[in-house]
């Protein structure tokens, strides 16, 4: 398989095999040739060819503009522009041919069937040509738009991978999703249809005006004077009103989406608290507001469309009066008058389209601005240009005068000093919200301290590459996350090149064997959305197995065993012994069973370290930990170390 270490192929075949009640015994020999052919025809998917740099390359760092995006594809842009100009010229030949046919083929003294026929044929040919031109032009701009969007999507996604955790807690996920969906789609619309049709309509108007004046200056002047001011006034009104309507409906659809996503994510809480009726009422409000905004836009359109038609008819009436009079006085040919009529109709179309498309142009522009801002945000935890690769570490972890607060005004940790020796396991205990998880998060640079330094083997973590640091510091977070895919895929997550034998070992060590045996497809059972189909204890066991497989030098377990029953906990205790062998570790634990097994215990409270010592020392000292310990014993806690 081209993407070694992936999970696609194995899971797929194995899933089918066990579906029929038989274990998967390899591809039968008579099918091997076919299978090989099938695999050879698979598109090569090679993650190894993808480069990710924490620091953006020069081309990625440039700010996003429409011009820059278009400049990447010069051939398509030139080709598309030529097609736009060509078709807009072709489109306007019809009325001129009509004029020629009337003046030189139909009027008294000029009867000529062949001229009329020739004009009609040419009319047809040019119409077909321009239709073909428009088709090719649409293909070209479509290709251009898809390429630009493809690159942009990858660029934005890559940027998301770079940004730090604080960015994702400040920005709502829904808003970030809308950058990837509606904003990028607006832009696609703009490039695909917006720019070209804007150019096409604009050019058409210029061509028509020029032709009108070349046909007859007096009549052209009359037409422009009578029609254009009215049209401009109406168009400005429409533009303002529709923009207001558009803003209104954009806000309101955002509310609808926000309400929807909250109700869906919180469906368990909603059901438990019988909030369905109130939720429906609430949703009815936001949906109703959105409907009102749409009514408004509808009304604006309903006024503008007929109004421009009215102006057009008015123009025609005036043209009939003034132009007819000129024809009678022999100041204008009949053919020219007919051509004027035809052009006047065509003059209105582009204006209507231009005004209507103006809002999509605005929409596309504001999307560019928002995407540009997004791409310009720099990660707060960043690599320096001369960051070094951290060599294989022994596992000494040092916090030196470390202070930190998520909000600089509200410090969570103040002047923390702690040294963890290679191979030592240290338990963090303390009340809820004391800052235990926070201190651990500073070690692998989820965040950077506001003051002080964090050192790994004596090296400031800010001077090394994030990749080399994080590959050696394994974290099992407080809420383990499982990805959609098989359990095997989820376990392989931590490191490239994990073998099936290693997975089987990890499963045994953390005591997952029973669960795996119970699942219909064993390790290849697919877990859905964040592992909602598993219990939280099972998720924790999987997260532990994942950490075991990643083989980091330093392990940080944040409440990694809090959801386990007593029996699983006993299994885990043994697993932990294996897992921690020779590794330094931070164990964050409310359960003192875990804390008691650590080499040292650190009590964190009130933004700092209150007590440090071996479990025996702290129990003897009759401080905060001793109080916790005795309370725990009194409530039936079982101290296995005694
Ligand atoms: N992403 C965040 N943004 C802002 N404040 C945060 C964030 N995460 C945690 N905090 C705050 O920082 C403080 C310390 O949180 P932390 O998660 O470190 O506590 P903890 O000791 O791990 O608690 P627990 O035992 O409940 O896990 C808390 O007051 C919390 O409200
Ligand atoms: Mg915590």
Poorly predicted segments: 1-25, 43-47
Give the number of domains: 3
**What overall geometry do the principal axes of the alpha carbons give?**
elongated
Number of beta strands: 12
Strand order of the largest sheet: 6-9-10-3-11-12
Q: Which molecules are bound besides the chains? A: adenosine-5'-triphosphate, magnesium ion
Rounded Rg: 36 Å
Number of helices: 23
Would you tell me the overall average pLDDT?
Answer: 82
Beta-strand content: 5-15%
Structure characterization notes:
The chain is 63% helix and 9% strand. The radius of gyration is 36 Å and the shape is elongated. The longest helix has 53 residues, at 276-328. The chain has three domains: 8-49, no CATH class; 58-376, ABC transporter transmembrane region fold; 388-472 and 557-563 and 584-642, P-loop containing nucleotide triphosphate hydrolases (Rossmann fold). The protein is α/β, with parallel strands linked by helices. The strands form three sheets. Strands 6-9-10-3-11-12 form a six-stranded mixed β-sheet, with helices on both faces. Strands 2-1-4-5 form a four-stranded antiparallel β-sheet, with helices on one face. It has a two-stranded antiparallel ribbon with strand order 7-8. Mean pLDDT is 82; it is low at 1-25 and 43-47. Bound molecules: adenosine-5'-triphosphate (ATP) and magnesium ion. The site of magnesium ion (MG) has 4 residues, from helix 14.
